[in-house]
Amino acid sequence: MNTASISRYPVPELAQLPQDIRERIEKVQHKAGFIPNVFITLAYRPAEFRAFFDYHDALLLKEGGLTKAEREMIIVATSAANQCHYCVIAHGAILRVYAKNPLIADQVAVNYRKADLTVRQKAMLDFALKIALASHQVNDSDFSLLGEHGFSADDIWDIGAIAALFALSNRMANLINMRPNDEFYTLGRAPKT
Amino acid sequence: MNTASISRYPVPELAQLPQDIRERIEKVQHKAGFIPNVFITLAYRPAEFRAFFDYHDALLLKEGGLTKAEREMIIVATSAANQCHYCVIAHGAILRVYAKNPLIADQVAVNYRKADLTVRQKAMLDFALKIALASHQVNDSDFSLLGEHGFSADDIWDIGAIAALFALSNRMANLINMRPNDEFYTLGRAPKT
Amino acid sequence: MNTASISRYPVPELAQLPQDIRERIEKVQHKAGFIPNVFITLAYRPAEFRAFFDYHDALLLKEGGLTKAEREMIIVATSAANQCHYCVIAHGAILRVYAKNPLIADQVAVNYRKADLTVRQKAMLDFALKIALASHQVNDSDFSLLGEHGFSADDIWDIGAIAALFALSNRMANLINMRPNDEFYTLGRAPKT
Amino acid sequence: MNTASISRYPVPELAQLPQDIRERIEKVQHKAGFIPNVFITLAYRPAEFRAFFDYHDALLLKEGGLTKAEREMIIVATSAANQCHYCVIAHGAILRVYAKNPLIADQVAVNYRKADLTVRQKAMLDFALKIALASHQVNDSDFSLLGEHGFSADDIWDIGAIAALFALSNRMANLINMRPNDEFYTLGRAPKT
Amino acid sequence: MNTASISRYPVPELAQLPQDIRERIEKVQHKAGFIPNVFITLAYRPAEFRAFFDYHDALLLKEGGLTKAEREMIIVATSAANQCHYCVIAHGAILRVYAKNPLIADQVAVNYRKADLTVRQKAMLDFALKIALASHQVNDSDFSLLGEHGFSADDIWDIGAIAALFALSNRMANLINMRPNDEFYTLGRAPKT
Amino acid sequence: MNTASISRYPVPELAQLPQDIRERIEKVQHKAGFIPNVFITLAYRPAEFRAFFDYHDALLLKEGGLTKAEREMIIVATSAANQCHYCVIAHGAILRVYAKNPLIADQVAVNYRKADLTVRQKAMLDFALKIALASHQVNDSDFSLLGEHGFSADDIWDIGAIAALFALSNRMANLINMRPNDEFYTLGRAPKT
Lengths: 193, 193, 193, 193, 193, 193
Fold this sequence. Notes:
6 copies of one chain form a homohexamer.
Chain A: H1 19-32, H2 37-42, H3 46-60, H4 68-81, H5 85-99, H6 104-111, H7 119-134, H8 140-148, H9 153-176, H10 183-186
Helix pairs in contact in A: 3-9, 4-5, 4-6, 4-7, 4-9, 5-6, 7-9
C-alpha cells in the first residue's frame, strides 16, 4: 500500500465526518472497492465537499445526449491540458471502464487529436478544450459547428459545463497536491473480452 | 431598460422555477433591488444552480482570514484574466461596495500590480492568478511566500478555492454569453463619504 | 483628493515648463476641468512630449472614416490587452463620452467580443488586436476582410496606426507607473438622457 | 489485434528491407516479443532510419551518470509536453520496466512536478523541459543549479541531448501519425514483486 | 536595382511633399547616399511623419548615458522579437556602423543572450524586451537591477522609451509592408580595419 | 581572428579525433576553406557526431522535390523561431549561396511571411514552422493544402524531417553555446553577377 501523502491538508477520519458525507463516501467505497482520494481529501471542507459532488452528480449522472464515456473524455482531455495528476489518472480509469477500451484514456490524455475517436467526438473535444483554455473566444460559429455534428444546445451546455467543472476540480487538485489512488492506474486496462 | 439578451439559453420565468430556487432568488432581489442575471440565467439548470450557489456561499459567506473585499479582489483579478464580462462587471461592483472604494475594481481588473493594494494583497493576487492560469506549477515555495505574508494554510485554501470556483464561473458565463445587469456598472462608484 | 504618486519620475511644475507645452496643457485643462496626468507626467521630457501629442492629434483629431468613439474603442481594447492602467481608465472615460454610452467602455475593456458593438466594429477591433499582439502576421486577407466591412485602405491605416501609437503609449505608462486621475473613473457614467 | 493504420506513409514489409535494417529490427523483435512501430514505420526511409537509431543508441545505451530510468523520464516528460502519442506510450512502458515502478510513467507524463521523484530528478526534468520548450534561454545558472544537484557537465550534455533527440522524434511521430503498439499500454504495469 | 514594392500604400514623389518633409528627407539622402524607405513610405501621411521623426530624433539624437550603438541594440533586439523586417535590417546596419562591429547586429537579432555583449548590455536588453513583450509586469525590482548595472533613472527612461517607440514603429512597418532598402543588408559588414 | 569560445564543452584537436571523423571534417574544410564550428564542437562526442551528420546528409544531400535553397529556407526559418545563433548564421550563409540571393537569408530569418518567396515556398514554411512549434496539431488538412501547392507526400516528409532535425540541432547548439564562424556572416552577400 502506498503511504505517500494524498493531500497537503489534513485528511479527515471517516468516522469524524458529518453523517451525510460519511454515507456518501461509504456508498462510493462500496461500489468501487476503495475510497477515491478526491472524496476523503475534499471532505476537509464539508460545505465545499457537498457543493462539489452535487455539481458533479448534476452533470455526470444526468440523462442527455452525451454518453458516459464521452463525458469522461471531456474530463480527461481538459485535465491533461491543465496537467492535473488526480483527474487524468482517476477519470482515465473511469473512461476505460465506460468505453470498454483499455487504450482510449492514454490516447486522449496525450493528444486527443490522434486518439481512436469519431470525428464528432474530436469536435466535442475541440470545443471542450476551447472552454478550458480560451473561453473568452467562444462564439456563434462554435455552436454552429457543433450543431452540424448533431449536438443540441443542451448537449453543448453539458460539454461546456463539464469542462468548466473540471477547470475548478483540476485547480483544487493542483492546489492541495491531491494524489490518485494506486488502484486507478490499472483499472480497466484488461482488454475487453 | 436594456432589452439585449442576457443568455444564449432560454431564461426561465421566476414563477416557473422550483420553490427553493425562487426563494433564493427573491431573497437576493430583496437585498439588491434587482435580480442579478447570474441567478436567473443559471436557473435554466436547477440542479447545477443549487450546486453553484452552495459552492459560492460556502466560500464567500464563511468566516476566515480574508476580508469580504479581498475575496472580491480575487474574483475580479482572475475574471479579468479570463475576460469574463459578467464576473468583472458584477463582482467589480461588489468589490467597490465592500471596499468602500470607488476606484479599486477598475484598477484590479486592468492590472492588479498597479492597484492601490497592500503588498500582502498583491501576493494574494499573484497566487490567485497562478491558480487561474498555471495551477500545475503551484509548489511549496508559493505556500512559504504566502505564509510570510501572514496567510494561514486555510487562508491559502480559500484564495485557491475562490480562484478555482471562478475558473468555473467565468467559463459558464462565457459559454452562455451571460450579460451583467446595467445596474452593476455604476454601483458603488459614488465616493465614500 | 488623491495624493498617491502619479509617476515614478519627477512631475514638473506647470510654471516651469516651456511656454508651448504649458499652453497646450492649459488648453486641455480648460476644456476638461482638470489636467489629465498623461500631460503633466510626460512633460518631464519636453521633446518627447511634443512628438507624442503631435502624433496623438494627427491620428485622433483628423477627419476620416472612423468615428471618434470608434477610435477610442481601439485604444481601450488594445490598452486592456496591454494591461495599461492609465489608458484603459482615461480613454474608457472618453469613449463613454463620445459614444454617449455609459456601459461601452467596461464592455470593450473586459472582452470586446461580447460588447454591444456592430459586426463591423468587432472586425475593426479584431484587426486592432492583431496589430497590438501579432503584427508580424498581418496579411492581405486582413485587408480584404476589412474591405468587406466597408473600411477603406486609409481607414485601415488609421486603425493600425492608433493601435501602434498606443502600443507606445501603454508601454510608456507602464514604464513610469502613470496613474489616471480619479476624475476619469466616473466621467460619462451617467446614463444618456 | 489492432488493425488501425500505424503511419500516414507506406509501411515496408520486413522482407523487403535492406539486410542491416532487417537484422536490427529482428533483434528488437526477439527481445521485445513484437516489433515496436517506430522501427517499421521509420524504415520507410532507410538512411534516416540508420541515423536515427544510431543517435538513439549513442545516447541511450552508453554509460554515464544518468540511470536508464532517468533517461526514460526525460523522454516521457518532454514527449508529453510535445503531445507525442507514440513516445509517451512506448517510452512510458520502458520507463515502468526500468524503474520497476508501475505508476511512474503516468505521473511523469501528466505533471512531473507532482511525480514520485527525487528533488535531483525534478531538477533534471526542469532542465530537460527548458531544452524542449525554450532552449534559447539556457544559461550559466542552469548549469550551476544542475551542478549543485551533482550532475557533471557530461551528464548535462546527456540530459540536453536526449531532450533534443526527442524534439526530433516527437515531431517525426506527429508528422507521420505514428501509432504505438497496443502492447506498450500495459507493459510494466504489474506491480513489482 | 530592386523594383519590388516598398509599401502597401502609395509612395509619394519627393517633389510633391511639403517642403519641410522634403528637406528632412534630402538631408538624410545626402548623408546616407540613398533615401531609407521609412522616410518616403511614411511621408504618405505628413502629420504622422513629422511626429514620428520628431520622436525618433528626441530619443536617438539626444545626449545621455547610452551610447549610440546601445540604442541601436535596443531597436534591433525588440524589432526582432516583433519580427519587423524593415527595422531589423535597417537598424542592424546602423548598429554595425556605430559599433564598428560587423557581427553584432545578426547576433543581437537572433538571440541577444548569446551575443558578444557586456553583462550590463544584456541587462539593458532584458529590460527592453520586457517593455516590448510584457510591460504590465515592470516593477521596482527591474529598476533596482538596472541601477546595480549603473543605469540612472533617466537611462532607464531612455531604454524603455526606445523600446516603446519601436513597438510603434514595428507595427507600422508590419502594417504597410515596409521594405528595407537593399543597401542596408551589406552596410557595415566590412570588418573594422 | 576571433578567439571567443566556440562551445561550453572542450573542443577536440583535429589530430586526436577518430580517423573517419577527421576525414569527414577535412573534406568539409577543403570545400569551405574553413572548418565550420558545428563539426569540431560536436566531435566532442564521436558517436553522436556520426549519427548527426548521417542524418544531415540523408536529408540535405538526397534527391527530391525540394531545391537545395528551399531546404536551407526551412532550416533558417525554423532556427530563427528557436533563436539558434549558430544555425541562423551558418545556414543563412548557405541559403544565400544556393539561392544566389544576398537578401533572402535575412528576410527569412526575420519574418518569412514578408520575404521574396513564392506562395508555394511560404506554404512550405508555414508547415515547417508548424512542425517546429506545434507538431501535435498537424492534421490531414495540412497535407491537402501542401498537395494543392504541388508537394508530394515525400516532399512533405522532407519538409517535416528537416524541421525536425533542426529542432534537435537548434537545441544542441543552444545547449553548448555553439558559436558560428565569423566567415559565415559575410558569405554569399556579394550580389549575384
